[in-house]
Amino acid sequence: MSDWFYLLPQAILCAGGLAALGLGAVLLRPAPGLQLGGALLFLAAAGAIVLALPAAGPVLDDMLAFDGIVRFYQLLILGSAGLSLLFASRYASLRGLAGDELYALVLFATLGMLLLAGAANWVIFVLGLELFTLCLYVLIALDRGRRTSLEAALKYFVPGAAAAGCLIFGVALIYAATGSLDLASSLASTAAGDVASFGPGLAGLALILLGVGFKLALAPFHLWAPDVYQGAPAPVAAFLATGSKVAVYAALLRLVAALPADAWQALAPVFWLLSAATLLAGSLPALTQTRVKRLLAYSSVAQMGYLLLALLAYPAAGPAPVMFYAAAYVLMDLGAFGSLGLLSPVSGDLDALEGFAGLGRTRPWPAAVLAVSLLSLAGLPLTMGFVGKFVVFVAVVRAGYPVLAGIGILGAVVAAGAYLRVLGALYFGRPVHAGQGQPPGPAAYVALGLVGALIVLLGIVPGPLLGLLR
Amino acid sequence: MEMQSVDHALQSSPWEPGIFGLAVFGAVVLGLLGGLLFLSARLTPGRDSAVKQTPYECGLVPAGSARLRHPAGFYLVAMFFLLFDVEAVYIFSWAVAFDASPASFWRMAFFILMLLAGLAYVWRKGGLEWGLGKRG
Amino acid sequence: MQTSALVLFVIHALIIGVGGIMAVASRSLVRALVGLIMTLFGVSGMYLLLNAPFIALMQLLIYVGAVVILIFFAIMLTKAPAGGEEERPNQVRTYLLALMAGVLPTFVIGWVVLTDQPASINAPLETGLKALGQGLMEPYFLAFELISVVLLVAMSAAVILAFKRRQSR
């Protein structure tokens, strides 16, 4: 099989982005249905090809990797993009944001994420990361009429640019130390014994970790997250919180897998500290937070901590926990941010806790999916979040980090209280103003149904998926 | 011990910046600059007058403030200039390495076509129009 | 020859350092920009010293030629007062934090690079323009095409952000 087939999903997404831009340039105001349908078609085509491609070693002059893990993550990314678009289409057209740029930028961002998830070379790693970040800057500022949207974009852009600088410097140091831009072989030759390459290689890795940590909103670099998630339009926040994070985790997983044992020993304490700090920094502020979008942002930070826990256990427990939790995370955050967008009135996204009062009765379906997502985020049984946390904690304890598991459980309990407050408002609060917000439309109902059903279904019968990942 | 081997290798290195030529060149530049500055400071009368303090010593009295608000179109044009400027790196190096093979040709064709698509989009969406155009 | 290379290195490092300090410490934005230009020229000189003339030229063309113009336009358009209103009263704490943020990474990276010196060649070899082009065509062709996608997205993003309101005609 020719190497070129492995470029097909990326080529399809690129063609899709170009088609969306072209449609907008020719018609100037294309129908939203046509754009949504077209974008979904391209995403589905890319997904079908990703499913059909056989696993292989690095292809295309060792630029791209494609194995079972990459395939899983790429499907997750494509699914996240598709669901975000389903949530976004009516939301955007009600607010006058549904231009060609929304669809084109989501497709191009997905292209960048796929490349990052499959990168086997540092150049592709950096380019994929920067491609989707560039798209996200604009997507966050999509609602240009609102100051908060612009502010959020700026708050993501300025530190993001600095983080990108760190990342590229780190790659340069690794190249200087090992003379290779190949991800696996450069990391493999950062081995101990070879003093000349070990020190600069570790310094480079530290800088790369810093840049990646910013994109993931890991603890010391998470300060942008609440402001950006709050200011971004809710479906964009859903895409930002799921697709981009999962793509970076896929790359991080391959990085950890390629590390030689002694480099991993040097880095494991760093991961330990990062995940402990991220868990605490994401969970503790949730206690006092009364703004739901910020609460979700902190929760997404905490979820990054759980994913990092699973990553820390990867050398001992294999990739199944981190992959399962990534899938759970994507569904939970898509459900939470997506249904929040659907519940919101056109004048601005719902944020304060009081705004959610009584929505469980007036808008039952979106509220139900929000409730399921929150329950899953809290880690209650019969949801995917519970199974995910369980699998992660077991793996972490087995890998020999019981203290971290304790911190994680503590964080989960603390954050659960905050989610329950929102649930209480949804179902037991007195409706402030009935009938706010618009009907979601059929596309969003499809997304709501899919997300809600999958969270519950995979929470009750996780066996098949877990078996597949093992 | 390491330093010695470095020194030894340097002596046989083909890379030798000619220090004497550089020194002469530097001295000439510095001398010329210093001389010109010295002469202009010594020989000019250096009398101040109101006319001399005006911006743009061209004899015309400026009208209005110099701080205008410029249309954002300027910035956009500068941005597009930057983006097309970046391409120079790739196109130059491609042109030098071009081996007349079809693969090489089509790879550059894709590159250029993507950029043309970008330009067409920008044009169609009004990115090249000045703020005072028909749309206003 | 090593001394002359060292002298040239120190000269360029001085240009870069002084320009950087000027860019950060200057009261007026335009002066800060001049400092930045100085730094960029110094970096270009460093590339020459590393025997990479093409990169040095591109540094001049792209950074000094275009990025600086872009920043200058930004200063012009935002109507910043020439007197430097944007500067806040000096706070010791700010300076200390800035110093820490600058010195700490420099120290760590410098220490690592000095103690674990990477194997290096004695004199820089020039990577020819032709080798660069061949690299872009053969192993790195995917990166090469990706760059065009990134540039396309940047172009459309600029027009989307700047003309969003007007385009809805």
Task: Tell me about this structure.
The complex is a heterotrimer of chains A (470), B (136) and C (169). Chain A has helices spanning 8-27, 32-52, 68-94, 100-117, 122-140, 147-178, 183-188, 195-216, 224-231, 234-258, 261-283, 292-312, 314-317, 320-343, 359-362, 364-378, 384-398, 402-428, 442-460, 463-469, and strands at residues 56-59, 64-66. Chain A has 470 residues and is mostly helical. In chain A, strands 1-2 form a two-stranded antiparallel ribbon. In chain A, helix 3 runs antiparallel to helix 10 and helix 4 (100-117) packs antiparallel against helix 5. Chain B has a domain at 73-124. Chain B contains five helices and no strands. Chain B has helices at residues 2-11, 19-43, 50-53, 73-97, 102-124. Chain C has 169 residues and is mainly alpha-helical. Chain C has two domains: 1-82, NADH-ubiquinone/plastoquinone oxidoreductase chain 6, subunit NuoJ (Four Helix Bundle (Hemerythrin (Met), subunit A), Up-down Bundle), CATH 1.20.120.1200; 128-169. In chain C, 78% of the residues lie in helices and 0% in strands. Chain C has helices at residues 2-25, 29-49, 53-78, 92-115, 129-137, 141-167. In chain C, helix 1 runs antiparallel to helix 2 (29-49) and helix 2 packs antiparallel against helix 3. Chains B and C meet through helix 1, helix 4 and helix 5 of B and helix 1, helix 3, helix 5 and helix 6 of C.
